Amino acid sequence: MHDEKNIVKSDVIVLGAGLAGLASAFGVLGRGQKPVVIEKEAIVGGMSCSIRRDGFVFDLGGHRFLPHNIKTTEYVRALFKDKTLLLRNRKSQIYLGGKFLQYPPEAIDLLRRLGIATSLKCAFGGLCARIRQGILKEPENTLKDWLMHRFGQDLYDIYFGPYSAKLWGVDPDQISSEWAPQRVSVSSIGVVIRNLMPAKGRAIKTYARKFLYPVGGIGRIPELMAGQIGGMGSKVFLNHCASKITRHENGYMVEAEDGRAGRRLFFAKKIISTMPLSEFVMMLEPRVPPEVLNAAGSLRFRSVRFLNLMLNTDEVTKNTWLYVPEDKFTFFRIQEFNKWCPKNAPRGKVGLSLEVACQKGDRLWSMPDEELLDICLMDLKKMRVDLEKKVIGYFSTYAEHAYPFYSLDYRRHLQKIYRFMESFDSIVVTGRQGLFRYLNMDRALEVGFEAAEALYDPARRLHFLRDKEDRKYLESNLHLSKKKR
Ligand SMILES: Cc1cc2nc3c(=O)[nH]c(=O)nc-3n(C[C@H](O)[C@H](O)[C@H](O)COP(=O)(O)OP(=O)(O)OC[C@H]3O[C@@H](n4cnc5c(N)ncnc54)[C@H](O)[C@@H]3O)c2cc1C
What we know:
Elements: E1 8-9, E2 12-15, H1 19-30, E3 35-38, E4 50-53, E5 56-59, H2 70-79, E6 85-89, E7 92-96, E8 99-103, H3 107-114, H4 116-136, H5 143-168, H6 179-183, H7 189-196, E9 210-214, H8 220-231, E10 235-237, E11 240-248, E12 251-258, E13 262-268, E14 270-273, H9 277-282, E15 284-285, H10 290-298, E16 300-311, E17 321-323, E18 333-336, H11 337-340, E19 350-358, H12 363-366, H13 369-382, E20 391-405, H14 410-421, E21 427-429, H15 431-435, H16 441-456, H17 458-468
Parallel strand pairs: 1-13, 2-3, 2-14, 3-10, 7-17, 11-15, 14-21
Antiparallel strand pairs: 4-5, 6-9, 7-8, 11-12, 12-13, 16-19, 16-20, 17-18, 18-19
This protein binds flavin-adenine dinucleotide (FAD).
């Protein structure tokens, strides 16, 4: 029996205080309803959080805010009344074959670093692949097909193949091609070649050179949102991990493990969930049909561990971030956080984050910080970056559900779960984890707002999940600046 007095009651329970969860709560408040937000971590923000230590700011990997929708831009800008949302320039390179190459490629740089023969071979091979695919129109089921048809064998072998294999931990022929159009920021050899030609004021369509970023780290966005919804009467319960959801005649009871007080119960008529879809489905009571459970068990995420270094030096590279595709290096990307914002580290110091793709529980995920530090410092030395005597502090942060893994049959499983979720008229799943979609921050915010609408509008609710199956994503049409009136 539950002690009624101790049950936290509200109109809507929102699971997760990442961007999507906080946006959902804001949307619910906008309808005059009262939400409570349950978050398992000690801070808000989910994957868009910032960890601050000894004057350093570390995000979970680099987070550029690139809004595609003017309303989202205006909403986020309005949170920063103190004008601390900055427009920043991107500078990124690839470390390949012992050389630092500009990314996206620039003609002089490519010729100088790769040599005329390799550069021409890449360009020619890519064009041939493009023409061949234009004529043959071969199916593109896998990420490998997609990359080979656009860039050709040489660029695939040099960069795209190794980088993808390292990030995902499997060969690109095991990954669905659906992932690529959303995430490969240079979309074909044609785009690469056009970029090689010097022309003033031209930017690659799928490539953003500028981005928005707050003083204090990307986590300022969710922190300000949490403050906003708090001011409107909603409460975020931190350190509460939802573990069971039971359907009752008139609503849902959510049990959450509270690190300190044990277990707390929440009751509401409606739920918006932004936690990982598979975990959400598995904690529903009464138990869901076995075929849906099987589908949920088939959805996988790729994890990332971030080794954060506090360095006693004023610069490591000139980059905001650096791609490191080769397998011989443990990390696949390096973020230099004071290049994102100078205030991300004390004066004369650098906050460097090494991103290591892994699987929760595997060797790279589990090894002690000291061991990973030794390996990474050796790797950096191989790149002629010697930081051994400059490390004044280090710690790891983790993103277990960093990337939804689009396996070749993921869509079949996802559709089964989506169709099942459509049978609930008082539950909406949303956000990057909740939808199992490769959404960036701006879309996470938007699907949060949309989820609140869908919860109260049966027609919208019906289309909500179907829409999310097909969204295309390009880094074009950005709305970084203020609305022109
Ligand atoms: C390495 C990396 C780099 C990225 N870079 C960019 C970038 O440059 N630009 C960009 O726009 N986007 C970027 N993203 C994507 C961005 O992080 C996401 O789009 C956004 O954070 C998703 O927000 P969300 O609220 O949907 O999900 P999340 O942030 O994952 O929120 C889900 C929340 O649910 C909570 N939760 C989970 N289980 C439970 C439970 N049982 N009980 C209670 N709470 C629970 C989690 O703790 C979390 O807070 C990046 C992501 C990664 C991993």
